[in-house]
Batch of 2 targets.
Target 1
Amino acid sequence: MRANILTRIAVRTLIVVVIFNAVSAVGKHRHVFTNGLGMPTSFLANSPFTSFFLPALILLVVVGGTATLAAGLLLGYRESSLLWTAFAGFVMIIWILTETVMIQGFSWLQALYFTTGMVELALVLALLGIVPWLPRIELDAWRKRSTLHGAK
């Protein structure tokens, strides 16, 4: 019983984190059309970019797209959801690390998004059975939605 509750908490937490990342990345679409919403282009001095257009487009399509896909698959209880969620977590981590190197600075927001990417990966690994006290999520049960709704 306790393990089932922990699994449900892990799944729900994963869904919340992935939706947060998706909404955050897609919500930055304004950066594409406003050249970074007034951020100084000096941030790009150590990067291959001369404007914020291409980085913002990458953020929107790659980071936002994978997170949105992962969120949709998680909410639809699809077998591939954990794979895409892990991929979205890796994409978020790589994005933040690359951004930090390119702008040669670090902010609390970067720490937050790096952490959410790590949480996504940790929860996926836990649900796949890496954590012994959290039972492995069975894909058949996942597909039938029994994991979230407590059916046996």
Target 2
Amino acid sequence: MNSNTKKRCIMIFPRFDNINLINEIRNKYDPLANNVRPHVTLVFPFESSISTEELYNHLIERLKNVSSFHLNLQDIIKVDDTTGMYLFLSVKDGIDKIKDIHTKLYSGMLEEYKPAWLNEVNFMPHMTIGNFTNRSDLNKAYEDVCSIRDDFDTLVEKISVEIIDENEDSIIEIEIPLSKTI
């Protein structure tokens, strides 16, 4: 990466009253738990020399008609496919809104940064709560958490852009407030 290039990700950082449960699971099973807060990814990590101002303007334009929305996550699922081995917390309410925002953001200047694998799979909004390198660890972790039936509810009021530094730490670069729902 040259000095003008930044590694970024665009996401929702939901606020839940019971977020401690998510943090407990992530601390056990997600190697990035100490680097980035619990999140739902809208634009996957990409490297570019797009300036903060250019990216800000892109987000303002793409999100101008997007209002705040209800988000509900529940049900932990096990994923073991070509993208990797994960535990996901599923999005139940807000899924169509997240898919719409995802599509809007991956247009225009960010279209070239859409990973090829996203064209091979159906984008499924989720929160990653575990990431594994072997199936045995994935299966044990799933057995540990599969009985958790908590609901995680919030109102999404902003979209965030993070810079991912060389230590994989998250530094918030831009926050775009969504218009208020009536």
